[in-house]
Automatic annotation (TrEMBL):
Known EC number: 1.11.1.24
Residue ranges of every copy of the Thioredoxin domain listed in the record: 4-73
Pfam families associated with the record: AhpC-TSA
Tree of life domain: Bacteria
Family of this protein: Belongs to the peroxiredoxin family. BCP/PrxQ subfamily.
Biological process according to GO: cell redox homeostasis; cellular response to oxidative stress
PANTHER family: AHPC_TSA FAMILY PROTEIN, THIOREDOXIN-DEPENDENT PEROXIDE REDUCTASE
Function as written in the Swiss-Prot or TrEMBL entry: Thiol-specific peroxidase that catalyzes the reduction of hydrogen peroxide and organic hydroperoxides to water and alcohols, respectively. Plays a role in cell protection against oxidative stress by detoxifying peroxides and as sensor of hydrogen peroxide-mediated signaling events.
One Gene Ontology term of the molecular function aspect: thioredoxin peroxidase activity
This protein's GO CC annotations: cytoplasm
Catalyzed reactions: a hydroperoxide + [thioredoxin]-dithiol = an alcohol + [thioredoxin]-disulfide + H2O
Organism: Salmonella enterica subsp. arizonae
Protein name in UniProt: thioredoxin-dependent peroxiredoxin
Keywords, comma-separated and alphabetical: Antioxidant, Disulfide bond, Oxidoreductase, Peroxidase, Redox-active center
Length: 73
């Protein structure tokens, strides 16, 4: 599999959310989605990244962007 570049269409995936419910990328079909990856929940790296997105959430929502964060835990 080749690495994705900005603007590429992501492959379909289904992963559990923080409550164990399945989230499918296809649930967001036709919408703008910003997918970000972080190494582990509740770590400094994830906090900085998530806070930056949180601080800009109003602008992202105005632009019609949904945000999905994915970690390995």
């Amino acid at each position: 599999m080749n690495p994705l570049k900005a603007g590429d269409i992501a492959p379909k995936f289904s992963l559990p959310d923080q409550d164990g419910e399945q989230v499918n990328l296809t649930d967001f079909q036709g919408q703008r989605v910003l997918v970000y990856f972080y190494p582990k929940a509740m770590t400094p790296g994830c906090t900085v990244q998530a806070c930056g997105l949180r601080d800009n959430m109003d602008e992202l929502k105005k632009a019609g962007v949904d945000v999905l964060g994915i970690s390995t835990d």
